[in-house]
Amino acid sequence: MPETEHATEQSRHGISRRGLVGGGVAAAGLAAGAFAAGRASAATDDGSAPDARAAYSFRGDHQAGIVTPAQDRLHFAAFDVTTGSRAQLVALLKAWTEAADRMTRGLPAGEIGPTEGDTNLPPDDTGEAIGLSASGLTLTFGFGPGLFRDEKGRDRFGIADRQPAALRTLPHFPGDMLDPEKSYGDLCVQACADDPQVAVHAIRNLARIGFGTVAVRWSQLGFGRTSTTSVSQSTPRNLFGFKDGTANIKSEETQDVEEHVWVGAGDDAKADWLAGGSYLVARRFNMNIEIWDRQTLGDQEDFIGRTKDTGAPLSGGSEFTEPKFSMPGSHGPVIPKDAHIRVVHPDFNDGVRMLRRGYNFVDGSDALGGLNAGLFFIAYVRDPDTHFIPVQNAMAKTDALMEYVKVTGSALFAVPTGIGTDEYVGQSLFERT
Ligand SMILES: C=CC1=C(C)c2cc3[nH]c(cc4nc(cc5[nH]c(cc1n2)c(C)c5CCC(=O)O)C(CCC(=O)O)=C4C)c(C)c3C=C
Ligand SMILES: [Fe+2]
């Protein structure tokens, strides 16, 4: 549907979208729709609240939700494909594209809406987002290894020859205690928004549309982003109480984004469809926060390698000062050798960087009264074999943090590039040119 037609539709507020969502499709997938008020970004963080009315274009050169300024809330869902029909799978991707395009504009998932349809039929939108705006919603789709081949290696949908070489189940890392019900998946959708109900509404409606073709395998809610993806955002804190996201790749670092986040045109001859896309690594870290809270402030800072107050490296300066790993302290280097920021730093990992986009979670409490809490780690990388697996291995083997975490969920997805008008998510994979 042309942009202008969208603009005249009723929003969930019941007011015209004209003047709210519009403008050109975001070239980099991160530019927001132009608002009458002139604010374009939901998550610009200069200390003020995010602009709840912001909308990010679903279509663009890259999928939104990667370099887009990290929103406050997450609902992440992994799906198993339950059909053997390629046509049905492609039809779902088309239907998801339409619904995602609408919901990211602040519109209902279906054209009729939650309350206007035939009273003898289920509505084409579930309704809990009535009255809510787009809230910076982004929907980012990924394909897991199981979409290409079943557990016996058989081609499921005629795309096995296009499976990227790096898209395999992640290896078992020391300390992994994976719950299969929080791991893996054929498809994933990362819904991020500045309103939790908007993110939940989006996943719920995509799951509803997928009934009979896919089934939710697992999902994860997250709050309090643990990253910054733009220099305009302030650094938030994780549940250990430390600033998290200081040294993350920012969208403004365009050369590093090209080098470390987007899959290049010649990276994988069999998987040319993935050029301009990325790999999404999801790792569910349960944090033993009750034990952590009994550690001294000095020890906590040694485990991270930064101060808890400002986030400055223990070698001195302020938050964004480069750490000096060779600076001596009273017992060895002032930033200990097993400090997290040293173990994962590019200087000790072949220069690789990753774009982190994780969220805090608290999923109630366990039988002993401890919080089932942690960090749902998400990273976007150009190649998991070079940019994630070696870093995670180093962390699992030598990082002081590992004593306070256990990994209970794990998954890897290939995230196709962005789409233009009249295209659907994954078209480059399913339609050979
Ligand atoms: C394999 C990659 C990483 C995992 C897994 C990971 C888990 C994890 N991290 C924190 C807390 C912090 N991480 C910080 C920095 C940081 N972390 C990684 C990678 C992984 N973290 C990188 C590449 C970096 C940046 C290193 C650098 O270039 O300096 C920080 C410091 C602040 C910051 O720069 O963001 C904190 C704090 C937790 C709690 C956690 C798992 C539970
Ligand atoms: Fe980290």
Automatic annotation (TrEMBL):
Residue span, Dyp-type peroxidase C-terminal domain: 235-418
InterPro entries cross-referenced by the UniProt entry: Dimeric_a/b-barrel, Dyp_perox_C, Dyp_perox_N, Dyp_peroxidase, EfeB/EfeN, TAT_signal
Family in the record: Belongs to the DyP-type peroxidase family.
Dyp-type peroxidase N-terminal domain location: 63-223
PANTHER family (UniProt xref): DEFERROCHELATASE, DEFERROCHELATASE/PEROXIDASE
Single GO molecular function: lyase activity
Class of this enzyme: oxidoreductase
Keywords tagged on the record: Heme, Iron, Lyase, Metal-binding, Oxidoreductase, Peroxidase, Signal
Keyword Oxidoreductase: yes
Descriptive protein name: Deferrochelatase
Name of the gene: efeB
Cofactor note: Binds 1 heme b (iron(II)-protoporphyrin IX) group non-covalently per subunit.
Catalytic activity: heme b + 2 H(+) = protoporphyrin IX + Fe(2+)
Native source organism of the sequence: Nocardioides mangrovi
Cofactors that this protein relies on: heme b
KW Heme (keyword) present: yes
This enzyme's EC code(s): 1.11.1.-
Function per UniProt: Involved in the recovery of exogenous heme iron. Extracts iron from heme while preserving the protoporphyrin ring intact.
UniProt cross-references to PROSITE patterns, sorted A to Z: DYP_PEROXIDASE (PS51404), TAT (PS51318)
Location in or out of the cell: Cell envelope
Pfam families named among the record's database cross-references: Dyp_perox_C, Dyp_perox_N
Superkingdom field: Bacteria
